[in-house]
Specification:
The protein is of the alpha/beta class and 434 residues long. It has 2 domains: 11-242 and 286-336, no CATH class; 341-433, Arc Repressor Mutant, subunit A (Orthogonal Bundle), CATH 1.10.10.10. It has 19 helices and 11 strands. The protein has helices at residues 4-17, 30-37, 41-54, 58-72, 78-96, 108-111, 129-137, 156-162, 175-190, 215-222, 245-254, 260-276, 299-305, 322-336, 341-351, 360-375, 387-400, 419-427, 430-433, and strands spanning 98-103, 117-122, 144-147, 166-167, 195-197, 230-239, 288-293, 297-298, 358-359, 404-407, 411-414. The strands form 2 sheets. Strands 1, 2, 3, 4, 5, 6, 7 and 8 form an 8-stranded mixed β-sheet that branches. A hairpin with a 3-residue loop joins strand 10 (404-407) and strand 11 (411-414). Helix 15 packs across helix 16. The chain is globular and about 75 Å long.
Length: 434
């Protein structure tokens, strides 16, 4: 435990180095946040309507709302966030990957208004995404994330809340729960709590970006007002390899639904691999992981540029523009997704399946041709050490993963069972290639 004085010093030290200071809302007592949440006018109006509709008492629904608020509400700890969580995230990420971070506009964070709420928006490639985006964004600001059902388990829910995140039951069909959740998100955004979310809502099973779900985005946008702009920062994430690749390929339906035996087996294999990661050469871990941060998108500016006047719109039409805004955000995220060595190799291999085997020189030549095409689209390319070095390390990783194998000495052959997995990685940059 740490006292208030030490917590205050930690926050002061963080504010001195962060582009955006820790918002006061993050430091507010958890019980006060819950009490403020239960006093939100829209939530109280919903409780009155539901009580009349269900012929039940408002007190009963208010008690349920308090229970939901307790499940959702965070309990931010500066000591946990700035000392333990940051170190743990860095150690866990570096155990698996070489981490890279790029920004289209390096000075963008310094120009952001302190009165704006920042929301990082990203594609969803892996369960590592929340860790990666939070770790990299924490160089500029604190970031609160929503966590799914996995975070309801002990002691994970304590860690998530201590990091300023909030736990979400995505399967709940109770309108009251959803109203409490939306009210919390709106209150947090209106209070300046910087956040991050993944509009797709779930992992990209075939490697391609999925259509966005508008629920959270709608909640964010409804908190926008003249006094508080919301600035979305689109980010693109990609990896050489992800631990979930075979499970995601199974989930596409190409092999039917994965059995419980398969899921347990894949989880045990991953846990076993974690034990050996510190003893492996870096080239045989999971390769590179990269996040690219794009140009910030001000919601107020977007509304003005698209002739959307929220005050002048009637309630039924107030958010008809939301799908267009979501499409623009997702397009901005897609443009930032970096092309890494394995997705590049996978693209070349999947484009010429008739070829029996590849010499390294031929594969490298085709990758260079692909790079020339990507250069014309302003795509972000990350090839540590240059083309030949990066491709050599990627082929070592693909070979150890049994996705390709050596044939006739120094030639490479695609393993047939690994073809769907290679296609998964090729799909991650398919929109850039096409």
């Amino acid at each position: 435990m740490t006292g208030p004085a030490k917590q205050s010093r930690l926050v002061a030290e963080a504010n001195a180095r962060l582009a955006l200071p820790v918002p006061d809302f993050a430091l507010t007592d958890r019980q006060e946040i819950i009490n403020r949440l239960l006093q939100q006018p829209e939530l109280l109006a919903h409780i009155r309507e539901r009580a009349a509709e269900l012929n039940t008492s408002e007190d009963e629904l208010l008690a349920n709302a308090r229970r939901y608020a307790n499940e959702i509400g965070p309990k931010f700890s500066p000591f946990f966030y700035f000392r333990f969580a940051h170190f743990l995230a860095r150690a866990w990420l570096n155990l698996h990957y070489r981490i890279h971070s790029l920004a289209v506009d390096e000075s963008a964070f310094g120009r952001l208004s302190s009165d704006a709420t920042i929301v990082f928006v990203s594609n969803h490639r892996s369960n590592f995404d929340p860790l990666l985006i939070t770790y990299l964004a924490s160089r500029h600001s604190t970031v609160a994330l929503s966590a799914g059902e996995w975070a309801r388990l002990w002691p994970l829910h304590h860690f998530v809340r201590a990091a300023g995140g909030f736990v979400v039951d995505r399967d709940s069909e109770d309108p009251l729960y959803r109203r409490v959740l939306v009210s919390y998100v709106q209150m947090a955004v209106a209070s300046g709590l910087h956040q991050a979310f993944f509009p797709e809502g779930e992992l990209a099973r075939d490697g391609r970006m999925r259509s966005p779900k508008l629920g959270f985005l709608n909640a964010y946008c409804r908190a926008c007002c003249e006094d508080r702009d919301i600035v979305f920062i689109p980010a693109g994430i990609n990896y050489d390899r992800i631990p979930e690749d075979r499970r995601l390929v199974h989930a596409t339906g190409n092999f039917g639904n994965p059995s419980a035996f398969f899921l347990v087996g894949s989880s045990l294999r991953y846990l076993a691999s974690v034990v050996t990661l510190p003893f492996r050469r870096r080239s045989t871990r999971y390769g590179n992981a990269c996040a690219v941060f794009g140009t910030p998108v001000s919601l107020q500016e977007w509304l003005a540029n698209n002739d959307v006047d929220l005050a002048g719109l009637q309630k039924p039409d107030r958010y008809t523009w939301l799908p267009d805004f979501a499409a623009d955000l997702m397009a901005a995220c897609a443009q930032q997704i970096p092309a890494l060595p394995i997705p590049l190799i996978a693209t070349v291999l999947c484009q010429d399946l008739e070829r029996e085997s590849w010499a390294f020189e031929d594969l490298a030549a085709d990758v260079r041709t692909l790079l020339d095409r990507l250069a014309s689209t302003d795509a972000r390319v990350v090839l540590p050490g240059g083309v030949d070095s990066a491709l050599g390390a990627a082929l070592d990783l693909l070979t150890s993963s049994k996705l390709v194998r050596h044939a006739d000495g120094d030639r490479y052959l695609v393993v047939h069972s690994g073809l769907p997995v290679l296609q998964h990685y090729a799909n991650s940059i398919g929109h850039l290639v096409s």
